[in-house]
């Protein structure tokens, strides 16, 4: 049968189907089957036949200088377009040295010894801030500078106390070694004895600097405030 006869037959079928309702068309489609119905009415082909036609298509180049046409339906081989080998890149994992065991343990004495130069820098900064405090006229800025000076002085005081404590421990350790060398019993002070010695040294320091009265007033004021808060709590 020629293509013209097939087209005429298809046109005739469509003319006959024009008078049918949607329900009648659906029923006819179910009776004939979707594949046969589409072939007779719409001349549509199944996906498998389309794929076969596409697969059999000739992708030969007309000219060797033209790019080759590749079918999108046929899956390409893995790494077909890859020219160079893939080099795996090691993932960079960030690490915090403060909590990483590979970086060693924190040694407070070694740390303060290595960064002792910061105390010298802090002393210079305090002197500069004190000069600025005298020249400053803005009340808000003056309060900020004053607070900063007090904080830095407290840090210096703590660093000095820590240094004195380390020095005292070093002297005690040296004294124990010397006692062992001379065949004597080394002295190991209790915690209560160390606390008492520290209080005595603190008292002597305050006495020399003339700040003992101020220190006593401060302690008395703190004790009164504590007693007052306890009294209010029990009421």
TrEMBL record:
Alphabetically sorted, this entry's keywords are:
Nucleus, Ribonucleoprotein, Ribosome biogenesis, rRNA processing
From the UniProt entry, list the residue stretches annotated as the region Disordered. Answer: 44-94, 155-191
Q: Which cellular compartments is it found in?
A: Nucleus, Nucleolus
Which biological process terms from the Gene Ontology are attached to this UniProt entry? maturation of SSU-rRNA from tricistronic rRNA transcript (SSU-rRNA, 5.8S rRNA, LSU-rRNA)
Please note every region of biased composition (Basic and acidic residues). 50-71, 155-187
Instruction: Please provide one cellular component term from the Gene Ontology annotations of this protein.
Output: nucleolus
| Superkingdom, natural source | Eukaryota
TM helices/strands, residue ranges:
none
One Pfam annotation reads RRP36
Please verify whether the record's keywords include Ribonucleoprotein. Answer: yes
Reported function: Component of the 90S pre-ribosome involved in the maturation of rRNAs. Required for early cleavages of the pre-RNAs in the 40S ribosomal subunit maturation pathway.
**Subunit structure, briefly?**
Associates with 90S and pre-40S pre-ribosomal particles.
Q: Which family does it belong to?
A: Belongs to the RRP36 family.
Give the protein's recorded name.
rRNA biogenesis protein RRP36
